[in-house]
Amino acid sequence: MKFKGVYYICLFFLIGSFETSIGVDDTSKPDPLDGVATARWLVSQNNWGVLSTISIELGGAPFGNVVSFSDGLPDKGCGIPYFYLTTLDPTARNTLKDERASLTLSESPIGSCGKADPENPTCAKLTLTGKLTLVTENTTEAEFAASALFSKHAEMKAS
Amino acid sequence: MKFKGVYYICLFFLIGSFETSIGVDDTSKPDPLDGVATARWLVSQNNWGVLSTISIELGGAPFGNVVSFSDGLPDKGCGIPYFYLTTLDPTARNTLKDERASLTLSESPIGSCGKADPENPTCAKLTLTGKLTLVTENTTEAEFAASALFSKHAEMKAS
After folding, report:
1. A151 belongs to a structural domain
2. B134 strand-pairing partners
3. Which chain B residues contact residue A125 at CB under 8 A?
4. Assigned domain for A135 exists
5. Which residues in A84-108 are b (16+ Cβ under 10 Å) and which e?
6. Chain B residue closest in CA terms to A124
7. Which residues make Cβ contacts (< 8 Å) with residue A75, sequence separation at least 6?
8. Is residue A3 part of a domain?
9. A151 touches chain B (CB under 8 A)
10. Nearest alpha carbon to residue B134 among B101, B92, B104
11. pLDDT tens digits along B96-150
12. What's the N-to-C CA distance of chain B in angstroms?
């Protein structure tokens, strides 16, 4: 039995209460007291995080999965994280049943926490909560999402 | 109103189907085809991950949180991840209501993925699922957990 990749690999994005600001230059670390700017910076500078969904297989238990994502071209984040998921993986299957999700990021992988422990409040942490939704194919958003993802994750383009 | 720290900062551990092997030397990366050894190595070598719980505040949505953890002295992992959590933080409050949790780790922070994308199958990922339970105070396990945590996260000792 043969399936076309399009049925399995789909673009998803997370809608939350995170305000967007397309085209903002996110290269320099914001003032830690500016929570919104720090959150946008974390999303823009990180290229992976943990996406948590409600597990179908585990009867409603929480299930976190390491995922690569992008919210725009390098250093030009839009604030909406996009993912390239496959329904061969439980995360995508879970979200098609229950779209509630959270994306969790740490400043630690960016390398700007110095010697501070990842749990130290000076090493920023972010949990975005919202709904993980399919991007509609053949739309401007789908083009933007693909471009955002492929520019930061070249390996995805070949998949 | 004043509270003693002991009411707020507690040791938790995750019980899952992850078999333990106390005292194993986990310094070298195992054969990727050996899933169990790779999982133990990831737990032993990582010092932070994302702990996902069912959110009380968000009406049952999944909530991932960056947490520091330890499963033993450096390079001597026991396979059980221990955490030092506070009920000032939603993760601990959530787990006292519903103990189902998952701990998600990536090989990426260890630095052994080279240029591979964190979502590339050659860059290991691990999701441990189980119950997040309080360690009983004044027991051998509590001593072990404190020693495991403080040896890898010196900042915790001062908290």
Report:
1. yes
2. B12
3. 65-66
4. yes
5. bbeeeebbbbbbbebbbbbbbbbbb
6. B66
7. A25, A26, A27, A44
8. no
9. no
10. B92
11. 999 999 999 999 999 999 989 999 999 999 999 999 999 999 999 999 999 999 9
12. 20
Cα(A43)–Cα(B28) distance, rounded to whole angstroms?
32
Compare CB distances from B155 to A60, A100, A117 and report the shortest one's residue: A117
pLDDT of residue B22: 42
Q: What is the ipTM of this complex?
A: 0.87
Tokens of B8: 């707020």
Minimal CA–CA distance to A70: which of A9, A144, A152, A139? A152
In a domain, A48, yes or no: yes
Looking at the 3D structure of chain B, how many domains does it have?
1
Which domain range does residue A40 map to? Answer: 9-157
Of B44, B47, B49, the closest CA to residue B66 belongs to B49
Phi and psi at A44, nearest 5°, equal -70, -40
CATH code of the domain containing B49: 2.30.110.10
Instruction: Answer whether A50 sits within 8 Å of B64, measured CB to CB.
Output: yes
Residue corresponding to tokens 């990180």: A46
